[in-house]
């Protein structure tokens, strides 16, 4: 029999990357307890686990358990999905534009999705069908339409001109908001409320049905972009360089655009416009572990979940029992932090 | 190795190269010489398959358009002039990108990175951010990535091609010679390299052939000691200069004259 050799046990060394991942995972668990355990219907962290086996938690009544499973849990799941998608599509758009300040909301994808979705809501009342059900697909179509349009205009000499891409995005943004404003004149009261809630962004509409509908789109976007992280990483050093290293850049950019449109479209349909997540989260992740997508992307996505859970919790806490639109919180947290980051990078 | 026939490249109405032809054979180190804007980088990009061009480029006898980017990436590597890195990668990460065309383990990748970083004198910089390095050091990082992409110093059966755009422009004298001797060693294994370069004397010491680009055309090409002549160079640069030979190896050495400001 072999003797036991201690040399088999190497000292455990933790890289900076693993350290951050660990920290963020702990944060997500803590935020899960907060997010599910705390709210107007009950203020106890044990609610976060009571729904799994209600018979062991006699202190909670059936209504409270119901609130958790039908309101807080779907809201938590939605926050996780939206956090993953917004952070990842942000990072992907930055790779596509080769600009750390790019974001789906900058090149017009979110606004395009919102425009088509709002048109869909406004007209659905006239034609008497349930807009809510098809909303993710309408928003995806809007996102795809706008992105393809922007891409085609910006494409010249086999390459996408980034400056044009961003400028056209700016134009599309203003056009979308003008159209949304115009459409709200034609909308009835209930549609108007929906439109209003949307331009501010909120996770308040979370329910299992909506999540189940949008999940295929969200998962496709998450898994698709995840698979492309290595070639996208090469885009960061320049398109011609990526080509010389064997990447079919035209095909890659097309895939990235479709997958970003899928994710952003579905998120906009579910929650409306939540800004700054796709801009700030990848930035923070890069400051932690550098720009390499193999290291940065997993961290970035988990960090997106943290930001979404935290912002949603704050949105519910600040004016309880009412709630603020989450878009206000992400902007209030995100914008100053982003300005600080810019100043810091400039000085550093 | 690589042949181009009646190659023309233009951007919009502006023509950069007009009907140029040439052939680069195995084991040749070709210096691409010309004034600023003569089209050296454009020719390199076209030979790499990046630009739309009229005419024909054949790589190892296959038309360039029939070869996939993925295949080309294992056979030729390109080091470009404006290597601005907007995202701040570490030296290790940037060199490792050269290994993207190959499906290999991260451990194998790290071995190659260390091997070619050592050749470019970069071992102690591997964990540093590229933006924290000087211009010359950054140039060496990109060279190490190019060497890693072709796995330049390993036994391979097919000859490979390196296209380098002013790889020595920011280097000190010692590193200029280190880099060019490295390319020379690569070529002597049966590979080829084309180097766009302004330093004629450096080119003369290492290159076997030269192509002079002037006025959208090839002014002259062939063995470097027959191309670097006073008449060729005076026509190209439109100034007086002298060509002498190197005291130790007879390579042509070019001496310019002080000019009066006018």
Keywords:
heterodimer, A: 348 residues, mainly alpha, ABC transporter involved in vitamin B12 uptake, BtuC, two-stranded antiparallel sheet, two-stranded antiparallel ribbon, 14 helices, 4 strands, 74% helix, disordered N terminus, B: 262 residues, four-stranded antiparallel beta sheet, 9 helices, 12 strands, 33% helix, transport (chain A)
3D architecture notes:
The complex is a heterodimer of chains A (348) and B (262). With 348 residues, chain A is mainly alpha-helical. Chain A has one domain (40-53, 84-96, 104-337): ABC transporter involved in vitamin B12 uptake, BtuC (Orthogonal Bundle). Chain A contains 14 helices and 4 strands. Chain A has a two-stranded antiparallel ribbon with strand order 1-2. Chain A has a two-stranded antiparallel ribbon with strand order 3-4. The model of chain A is unreliable at 1-6 (pLDDT under 50). In chain A, α5 packs antiparallel against α11 (249-271). Chain A is globular. Chain B has 262 residues and is of the alpha/beta class. Chain B has a single domain (2-256), classed as P-loop containing nucleotide triphosphate hydrolases (Rossmann fold, 3-Layer(aba) Sandwich), CATH 3.40.50. Chain B has a 6-stranded mixed sheet, sandwiched between helices. A 4-stranded antiparallel sheet of chain B has the order 2-1-4-5, with helices on one face. In chain B, β7 (161-165), α6 and β8 (192-196) form a beta-alpha-beta unit. In chain B, α4 packs across α5 (135-150). The longest helix of chain B has 16 residues, at 135-150. The radius of gyration of chain B is 19 Å and the shape is globular. The N and C termini of chain B lie far apart (46 Å). Classes of the chains: A mainly alpha (348), B alpha/beta (262).
């Amino acid at each position: 029999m072999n003797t036991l050799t201690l040399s088999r046990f190497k000292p455990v060394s933790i890289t900076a990357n693993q350290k951050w991942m660990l920290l963020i995972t702990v944060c997500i668990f803590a935020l899960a307890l907060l997010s599910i355990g705390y709210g107007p219907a009950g203020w106890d962290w044990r609610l976060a686990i009571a729904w799994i086996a209600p018979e062991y938690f006699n202190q909670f009544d059936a209504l409270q358990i119901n609130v958790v499973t039908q309101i807080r849990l779907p809201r938590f799941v939605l926050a996780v999905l939206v956090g993953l998608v917004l952070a990842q599509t942000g990072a992907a758009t930055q790779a596509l534009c080769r600009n750390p300040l790019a974001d789906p909301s900058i090149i017009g994808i979110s606004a395009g999705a919102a425009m088509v979705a709002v048109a869909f809501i406004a007209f659905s009342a006239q034609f008497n069908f349930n807009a809510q059900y098809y909303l993710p697909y309408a928003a995806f179509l809007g996102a795809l339409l706008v992105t393809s349009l922007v891409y085609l205009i910006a494409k010249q000499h086999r390459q996408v001109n980034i400056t044009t891409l961003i400028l056209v995005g700016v134009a599309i943004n203003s056009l979308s908001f003008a159209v949304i404003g115009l459409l709200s004149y034609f909308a009835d009261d209930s549609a108007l409320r929906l439109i209003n809630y949307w331009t501010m962004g909120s996770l308040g509409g979370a329910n299992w049905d909506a999540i189940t509908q949008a999940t295929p789109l969200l998962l496709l976007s998450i898994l698709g972009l995840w698979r492309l992280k290595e070639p996208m990483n090469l885009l960061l050093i320049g398109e011609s360089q990526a080509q010389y290293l064997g990447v079919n850049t035209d095909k890659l950019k097309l895939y990235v655009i479709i997958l970003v449109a899928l994710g952003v479209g579905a998120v906009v349909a579910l929650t409306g416009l939540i800004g700054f997540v796709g801009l700030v989260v990848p930035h923070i992740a890069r400051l932690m572990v550098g720009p390499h997508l193999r290291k940065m992307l997993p961290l970035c996505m988990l960090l997106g979940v943290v930001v979404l859970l935290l912002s949603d919790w704050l949105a519910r806490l600040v004016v309880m029992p009412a709630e603020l639109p989450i878009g206000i919180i992400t902007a209030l947290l995100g914008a100053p932090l982003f300005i600080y980051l810019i100043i810091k990078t400039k000085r550093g | 190795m690589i042949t181009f026939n009646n190659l023309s490249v233009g951007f919009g109405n502006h023509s950069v190269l007009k009907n140029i032809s040439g052939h680069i054979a195995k084991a040749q180190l070709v210096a691409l010489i010309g004034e600023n804007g003569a089209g050296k980088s454009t020719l390199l990009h076209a030979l790499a398959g990046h630009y739309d061009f009229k005419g024909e480029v054949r790589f190892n006898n296959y038309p360039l358009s029939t070869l996939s980017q993925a295949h080309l990436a294992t056979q030729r590597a390109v080091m470009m002039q404006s290597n601005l890195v907007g995202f701040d990668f570490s030296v290790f990460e940037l060199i490792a990108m050269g290994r993207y065309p190959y499906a290999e383990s991260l451990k194998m990748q790290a071995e190659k990175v260390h091997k070619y970083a050592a050749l470019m004198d970069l071992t102690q910089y591997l964990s540093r951010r590229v933006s924290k390095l000087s211009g010359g050091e950054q140039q060496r990082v990109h060279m190490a990535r190019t060497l890693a992409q072709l796995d330049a110093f390993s036994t391979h059966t097919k000859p490979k091609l390196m296209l380098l755009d002013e790889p020595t422009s920011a280097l000190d004298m010692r590193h200029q010679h280190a880099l060019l001797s490295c390319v020379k060693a690569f070529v002597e294994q049966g590979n080829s390299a084309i180097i766009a370069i302004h330093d004629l004397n450096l080119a003369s010491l290492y290159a076997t052939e030269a192509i002079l680009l002037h006025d959208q055309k090839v002014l002259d090409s062939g063995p470097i000691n027959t191309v670097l002549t006073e008449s060729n160079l005076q026509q190209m640069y439109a100034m007086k200069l002298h060509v002498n030979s190197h005291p130790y190896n007879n390579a042509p050495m070019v001496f310019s004259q002080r000019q009066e400001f006018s």
